[in-house]
Design a protein that fits this description.
This protein has 465 residues and is of the alpha/beta class. Helices cover 44% and strands 19% of the residues. The protein folds into 3 domains: 124 residues, Gyrase A, domain 2; 126 residues, Four Helix Bundle (Hemerythrin (Met), subunit A), CATH 1.20.120.430; 157 residues, Rossmann fold (3-Layer(aba) Sandwich), CATH 3.40.50. The strands form 2 sheets. Strands 3-4-5-6-2-1-7 form a 7-stranded mixed sheet. A 7-stranded mixed sheet has the order 9-10-8-11-12-14-13, with helices on both faces.
């Protein structure tokens, strides 16, 4: 089948829109000009008529064989999700029934939809813009309240579209001003005003670019490597934090040979923990592989929990220096955790909260993972990872495509800032601003048609959406 949406947009399409497999109910969609014509051939109701925007109750039948009792909803163009005539069939969730109904619809003039084709048609028919179309996928894939809120901001509130629309207007105004000056020499150009507006545009774009990193954390979660010497209580700590016995706990040093994962959610933010092999000198080939995996894991995590037996603090400073020489922990947040305090007669509340290694000062917590002492301090630390004001109302870029386009736009805006005010420079400024505008339109979907970009966006959707 041709996957070019533009060439296929006049067909009537059908697909199962609910998750594949057996369930209580299943939803099958039909969209296109022939939707009503097709359904009349296989749907029978006592009322002899299919009503718009009302529940239609009847049976799906082929020849004399009844396939299922169904509820049918008919949305007449343009008042539907796709902007076309759209029918939704709510049938029982038998795989046989789903496949049989789809087969009947196709036999009577429809074809099976390709990935994201219903949402693509909603976009083409101006029911939603490109940003909203991409937000549909973000809503489907959202795993927590923050992710969901970000997607809703785009789909329902159209927030990013409005932000970019303001940036677009500023660029268009500057372009118009420059074009008039190039055509009419007697009009005096206000260079200061242009520069001020360019700075405003640059600041807004930078803010959006920076926000992508925060949103990436919201989407993927914060990765935390639990590292330290052997038998320091790393596995016990992870089990306590996630409240599951995920990692094997043993008094035998070097028990953990592979990376063990665990996950929790705090304040709507996902935390991904990785229990790693203890760091020490060893002759065991298997243990060496585990230690190498520890170093590899550290490279890709945001935070390091360095866990050690309280009594061995000085030795752990040496281990820390070994890690530091490998340049693995550069620019990473490190929390030092002195474990097993239940074995020693100490008052953790009188202990210093920080200690120094060289010129660097690091936070330290005193706990007993085994006795669950001080774990509340770790949870408090995790709660304060991100500022509170991101929780509900702030907006962030949540799409790698948008992020890449914004970086290109920012490069053109920086070039504009460097240009002088003479006539030749004004022409160059005009060219750069037009290029910035083109890339802005690639995000919003305005004034451009690029089948490759559209196909790439919608191919990530499921077939029934």
């Amino acid at each position: 089948m041709n996957n070019n949406y533009y060439l296929l947009r006049n067909d009537t399409i059908t697909a199962i829109s609910s998750p594949l497999g057996i369930g209580a109910i299943s939803i099958i969609r039909i969209s296109g000009k022939k939707s009503l014509e097709i359904i009349k051939k296989i749907f029978y109701t006592k009322k002899k008529k299919i009503y718009v925007l009302k529940i239609n109750y009847g049976i799906i039948k082929y020849k004399n064989n009844i396939i299922d009792q169904v509820i049918l909803l008919y949305f007449k163009s343009p008042n539907s999700y796709t902007g076309e005539d759209l029918i939704e069939i709510n049938c029982h969730g038998s795989i046989y029934i789903q496949n049989k109904i789809i087969d009947l619809i196709i036999k009577n003039g429809a074809r099976l939809a390709i990935n994201g084709e219903f949402t693509y048609r909603a976009y083409i028919n101006k029911k939603i813009n490109l940003l909203q179309a991409e937000s549909v996928l973000d809503i489907i894939n959202s795993n927590n309240k923050l992710e969901h809120n970000l997607a809703i901001n785009n789909l329902i509130n159209n927030k990013l579209y409005h932000i970019l629309n303001k940036i677009e207007k500023k660029i268009v105004n500057i372009l118009s001003y420059i074009e008039i000056n190039l055509d009419f020499f007697e009009i005096k150009l206000n260079i200061k005003s242009i520069k001020n507006n360019i700075i405003l545009i640059e600041n807004k774009i930078k803010k959006l670019i920076k926000s992508f990193k925060i949103n990436n954390i919201i989407k993927k979660g914060i990765d935390i490597s639990i590292i330290g010497p052997v038998n320091s209580g790393k596995s016990t700590l992870m089990n306590r934090i996630i409240n599951k016995n995920k990692a094997i706990v043993s008094n035998i040093p070097g028990t953990t040979r592979d990376i063990v994962e665990g996950h929790i959610t705090i304040k709507n933010l996902n935390f991904n923990f990785y229990d790693t092999a203890g760091i020490r000198k060893t002759k065991s080939k298997i243990e060496k592989i585990g230690i190498k995996k520890t170093y590899d894991n550290i490279k890709y995590t945001n935070i390091i929990f360095f866990v050690f037996d309280y009594k061995l603090l000085n030795k752990n400073k040496k281990i820390y220096k070994i890690i530091k020489t490998k340049k693995i922990i550069k620019n990473k947040n490190i929390l030092f955790i002195a474990n097993k305090i239940d074995k020693y007669n100490i008052n953790i509340y009188k202990k210093k909260k920080y200690f120094k290694i060289g010129n660097n000062k690091y936070k330290i917590l005193f706990i007993s993972a085994k006795k669950k002492i001080g774990l509340d301090k770790i949870v408090e630390y995790l709660k304060n990872i991100l500022p509170n004001n991101i929780e509900l109302n702030n907006f962030f870029i949540n799409n790698i495509r948008h992020y890449n386009e914004l970086k290109i736009i920012n490069r053109y805006i920086k070039k504009v800032k460097k240009d002088n005010s003479n006539k030749i420079a004004l022409e160059l400024i005009s060219i750069d601003l037009r290029k910035a505008l083109q890339h802005l339109y690639k995000i919003t979907g305005k004034y451009f048609t690029n089948d490759n970009i559209l196909n790439n966006i919608f191919k990530n959707f499921c077939i029934g959406k």
